[in-house]
Amino acid sequence: MKSKIWMTAMLAAVMLLGACGNDIDSENRDHGSHEEADEEVRSLDVNLEVPGTAKAGENESFTAHVTSNEEDVTDADKVRFEVLDADGNSLDMIEAEHSENGLYTIDYTFDEAGDYSVISHVDAYQLHTMPEKQVTVR
């Protein structure tokens, strides 16, 4: 009999504490939504430019034009270019620096002919995007 009373009391205490916790969480969520409403909603757009065809052994440029809300992003957290072979194996990952007007550029030389993919991995304003383009190397 004592164990039934003890279990009932524990269950009631857990339910009471759980209900109080939900009220506190919903109050915090309400306050958080007001703060978020004051912040500007950001977009992250990347125009990836790579040559459609290239020659093995020749230097090529890859450029990512990064914009947010139609404005150039000059302070992206990270911009990297990844080169993959036709089987999807990553061959190289190169970090790019901002040059001007939201442009992030690297130079790259393909060693041999084949089909490749180039992906720009862009992180800015707590967003991530990774557009991909194809390159045929002769």
Automatic annotation (TrEMBL):
Signal peptide segment: 1-21
Domain named YtkA-like: residues: 39-121
Presence of keyword Signal: yes
Protein keywords: Signal
Entry annotated with the keyword Ribonucleoprotein: no
Pfam families assigned: YtkA (PF13115)
InterPro entries: Filamin/ABP280_repeat-like, Ig-like_fold, YtkA-like_dom
Protein name: YtkA-like domain-containing protein
